[in-house]
Amino acid sequence: MKFNQYSAVLLRNNWNRYFVLLLFFFVIKGNAQILEPVKWTAKIEKKSNTNAVLIFDGILEKDWHLYSQFTPDGGPLPLEIVFKNQKGSYNLVGKAKEGKTKTTFNDVFGVNETYFENKAHIEQEIIITNPDLKAVEVEFDFQVCKEVCINLNKKFSIAIPASFKMNAVTTVSEAKADGTKTVDLVVDTLNTTTKTVVKTPEKATAENATTESEIASPASPRSLWSVFFVAFLFGFTALLTPCVFPMIPMTVSFFTKQSKTKADGIRNAIIYGISIIGIYVTLGFLVSWIFGADALNSLATNVWFNVGFFVLLVIFATSFLGGFEIMLPNSWANKVDQQADKGGIVGILFMALALAIVSFSCTGPIVGSLLFEAATNGVIGPIVGMFGFSLALALPFMLFAMFPGWLNSLPKSGGWLNTVKVFLGFLELAFAFKFLSNADLVLQLHFLEREVFLVIWIAIFGALALYLFGKITLPHDSPLPHISVGRLYLGLVTLAFTVYLIPGLWGAPLKLISAFPPPPQYSESPFGVGGSSASVTSSEGLPKGAELGPHGIMVFTDYEDGLAHAKSINKPIMLDFTGHACVNCRKMENNVWSDPAVLSILKNDVVLISLFVDDKRPLPAEKQFVTSAGDKIETIGDKWTDFMITRYKTNTQPLYVLTDLEGKSLNVTTPTISYVGVEEYLNWLKTGISKFK
Fold first, then answer.
1. What residues pair up with 66 in beta bridges, in sequence order?
2. Residue 42, beta-bridge partner list
3. CA distances, 311 to each of 315, 317, 429, 440, 693 (Å)
4. Is it true that the peptide bond before 654 is cis, omega within 30 degrees of 0?
5. pLDDT(609) > 80
6. Is the dihedral of CA 124, 130, 132, 133 positive or negative?
7. Residue (of 521, 510, 396, 532) closest to 461 by Cα position
8. Phi, psi of 152 (to 5 degrees)
9. Are 293 and 378 in contact (CB under 8 A)?
10. 644 FRET partner, CA 20 to 30 A, in 318, 539, 599, 629?
11. Are 309 and 396 in contact (CB under 8 A)?
């Protein structure tokens, strides 16, 4: 009996130990793991005796997103495909094509981001120029995000079958109806290094509007509804310009007089409206067909195209403000008028064309701006944009033809039409600087930093307010003995908006226009004009290696510099593994770090070290190395990624760690924390700091 009781106690104690060890194991697994949410396969298809198609398929784990090559500058890091042994061996046929993607507006970066969901499909056609080529070496650098983000590197070595260098087809396993042949091949997936460099966007945020599309095919319905709505407003605004508005009564009167019956007048007016829509939709189709989705996306993010569009908008704005008139040759309009006199459906079509030509000086700049913006939504964007624009333009002609009596309710043409045109000129001028800012941000020239941008906008909208109040007159303005109530209200709104912009010079976030000016970090002073940091009181300035980060927090971007400072003032360290393009990192900084209690701790109780895992600057040659796993550490981002994986066994961002001066985690139960709310983050900070000795 005693033996049995002793044995039972011993057994129970052993099981308790095993349970504790097992629980500890799962805690470690739950808090530190290397994630690889994409599984890749590859194959090759022979297209001709010289051409082949490389096909890559990735399966993504649930809720993860992989960012496309076509995600624009200023957003998450796009997929980069590098063909390592291309020179002298093969040539690429165009850019790699992508399968089904989604496009989402990212409110943090203010750009549309394109990404794969569930699966990724990529094809690249090549022309083999070296008959002795044995394999194609390809490397993917890509970013995947859920609540955290990971930058991964995948290498492929794709063997070239002997049949690719000959006319033989004996090894072809499947011949397809389209003439292509699928050939079995060996795909050697070399190491999948989790160069987790983060770039960031979150769960490709469900808060944002999501659209589904194929590359080079229609974008999603929701996004296109936005394009349609904005285009419709553009069309309605164009309707109120002096080039278009006076033509409504003249054109409708023409139709009602030329038609034998009221029904004929209504029918002809409807045909006229449909013709207007057809002309503008055809223009949108031609833009899409000539350029294609890839070219449109490239143009939308190209530095020199942004600069060119800035110049174009300034020219348009100068024209709207009265500097000169942009006119198509009069001979065009005369020839079209002659065709319109023939009558019938053909004559009506030419009348619609005449409207487009005559009104070009007012509608041209609007249409140009609209086409540029709509192009970011893929091939279908310009078509939908032109449909919305032309529908707003055509509706009044059709409605007033159906109900001619309504013409009496129209306001008379006059100086107010020129006011609308000038108002549009000011808007064109303001938007022009957004495109110049895009180019400046990409090139990191710092010519158009946040303060300069805001000063320009304050000047433009301030001048617009003075114009609306009648304090400024322009070349084509009529005498203004008094201003209307409507003009007064519009002037007050413009003045209020101008005043709203002013605090932005002193660091106000200006959330209403957050997608337009450069980010707060891209500025002459992180605290705005005349601002200062409460965290830096020494007249000697910041310590070595420190800079001012979000909300004026002193931050180090090198671990050794931050560690040395922490030891000198005897404070714990908070490691912030982040990325320049990490959306959730920015959200944590904007929404959590800004909390007064959290901000006080970050400024006063810890030494913040932010390590950017997507920093592409090369390390000095003597500091580059190869890890035990064979990964090359060549950039600063590689270094911090390796540091994070080696020490904390994870590769996700944002990632926060509180450590003592020996590098040991202060939070024993929760060593690291990621994308959480204010309360949980604050409790984690307080718990860790309380353990610091």
1. 116, 144
2. 56
3. 6, 10, 10, 14, 60
4. yes
5. yes
6. negative
7. 510
8. -120, 155
9. yes
10. 599
11. no
d(CA 297, CA 143): 19
What CA–CA distance (Å, rounded) separates 30 from 35?
A: 11
Separation in Å, CA 403 to CA 246, 264, 271, 394 = 17, 13, 16, 15
How confident is the model at residue 562, as a pLDDT?
94
Task: Note the pTM of the prediction, 2 decimals.
Answer: 0.46
Beta strands 607-612 and 573-578 are parallel
Dist. CA 38–CA 141, nearest whole Å: 12
Two tokens, residue 628 = 């035990």
Residue with tokens 């959306």: 583
Q: Evaluate if residue 331 carries a pLDDT over 80.
A: no
Whole-number Å distance between alpha carbons of 29 and 649: 9
**What's the rounded Cα separation, in Å, for the pair 151 and 421?**
48
Q: Running DSSP on this structure, what letter comes out for residue 656?
A: E
Q: Which two tokens stand for residue 162?
A: 């002997």
CA pair distance 579, 635, nearest whole angstrom: 14
Q: How far is it, in rounded angstroms, from Cα 636 to Cα 150?
A: 16
Identify whether the C-beta of residue 361 lies closer than 8 Å to the C-beta of residue 243: yes
Strand partners, 50: none
Q: Give pLDDT tens digits for 170-225.
A: 333 344 444 444 444 333 333 334 333 333 333 333 333 333 333 333 333 345 67
